[in-house]
């Protein structure tokens, strides 16, 4: 049995432009600049925010708008667009928000002991990585997926849950509060690698399935004549993996260079210590550290 679709063929211009999503993104950008500008002094330790962080937050809102406007408009007819939408919303947007929002905005969340206990549990690297990837895989089980896609309430609830767990998943890597940052750059690189591995099976099953997995898309109007429903399904699995590889590649690179900087700084400190020891040693004595 085929499901009802929101759009027949191509969505109209209004749906494509999604003014609601645009206004929401602009409102969040405005609020962000009010908080980090005039309201900064209301926060404990509210200091100036770096330009690259501002760029990060605005980029997150651009990603949100592209995903929620043009991409989402086609997501009910094309499974590949649905997967690109999910990749942008859960894999690309949260790390940019975490990177762009200063520590002093997040700290009040951790003031309450009960809230802190809950947050510490859900942002534990092993819990966070298993929860997000587990829920994303369960969401794409055909029976569940078809049910969610035809029920607005279930869809809303499932996307809120996935969004929250996406932030938990990204927290160990992009932790915006320095004193709560549990992982060093090398551990973060291992975490991202593991995260990529965990998402691969779901993408592979979708990309290489010989049958249509989702009834919802089987009855969808064909948007592009050369793209059959089955090819669109395969493309969806590949698209999510590609977006994931790009995002994780950037974050891996960022942490790799952070690790290199850390190593150089450590070498410099060791060298200074050695020089100080040599200078402190009385004339004519030999430092056994250097034999």
UniProtKB/TrEMBL annotation:
Pfam families: Caa3_CtaG (PF09678). Keywords: Cell membrane, Membrane, Transmembrane, Transmembrane helix. Residues 268-291 are annotated as: Disordered. The lineage of its organism: Bacteria, Bacillati, Bacillota, Bacilli, Bacillales. One of its GO terms (cellular component) is plasma membrane. InterPro entries: Caa3_assmbl_CtaG-rel. The chain crosses the membrane at residues 13-35, 55-75, 81-106, 118-140, 152-171, 192-214, 234-260. It is a multi-pass membrane protein. It comes from the Bacteria. This is Cytochrome c oxidase assembly factor CtaG. Its main location: membrane. It is found in: Cell membrane.
């Amino acid at each position: 049995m085929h499901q009802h679709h929101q759009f027949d063929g191509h969505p109209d211009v209004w749906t494509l432009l999604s003014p609601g999503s645009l206004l929401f993104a602009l409102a969040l950008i405005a609020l962000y600049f009010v908080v980090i500008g005039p309201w900064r002094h209301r926060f404990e330790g509210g200091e100036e925010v770096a330009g690259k962080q501002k760029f990060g937050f605005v980029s997150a809102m651009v990603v949100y708008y592209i995903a929620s406007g043009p991409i989402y408009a086609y997501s009910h007819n094309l499974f590949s667009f649905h997967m690109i939408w999910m990749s942008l919303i859960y894999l690309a947007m949260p790390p940019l928000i975490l990177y762009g929002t200063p520590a002093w905005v997040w700290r009040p969340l951790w003031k309450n002991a009960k809230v802190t206990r809950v947050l510490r549990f859900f942002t534990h690297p092993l819990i966070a990585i298993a929860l997000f990837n587990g829920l994303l895989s369960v969401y794409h089980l055909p029976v569940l997926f078809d049910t969610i896609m035809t029920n607005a309430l279930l869809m809303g609830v499932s996307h809120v849950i996935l969004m929250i767990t996406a932030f938990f998943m990204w927290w160990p890597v992009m932790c915006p509060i320095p004193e709560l940052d549990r992982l060093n750059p090398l551990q973060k690189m291992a975490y991202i690698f593991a995260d990529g591995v965990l998402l691969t099976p779901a993408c592979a099953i979708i990309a290489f399935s010989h049958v249509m997995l989702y009834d919802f898309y089987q009855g969808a109007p064909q948007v592009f004549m050369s793209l059959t429903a089955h090819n669109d399904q395969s493309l969806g699995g590949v698209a999510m993996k590609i977006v994931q590889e790009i995002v994780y590649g950037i974050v891996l690179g960022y942490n790799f260079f952070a690790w290199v900087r850390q190593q150089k700084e450590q070498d410099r400190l060791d060298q200074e210590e050695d020089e100080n020891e040599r200078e402190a040693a009385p004339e004519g004595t030999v430092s056994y550290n250097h034999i």
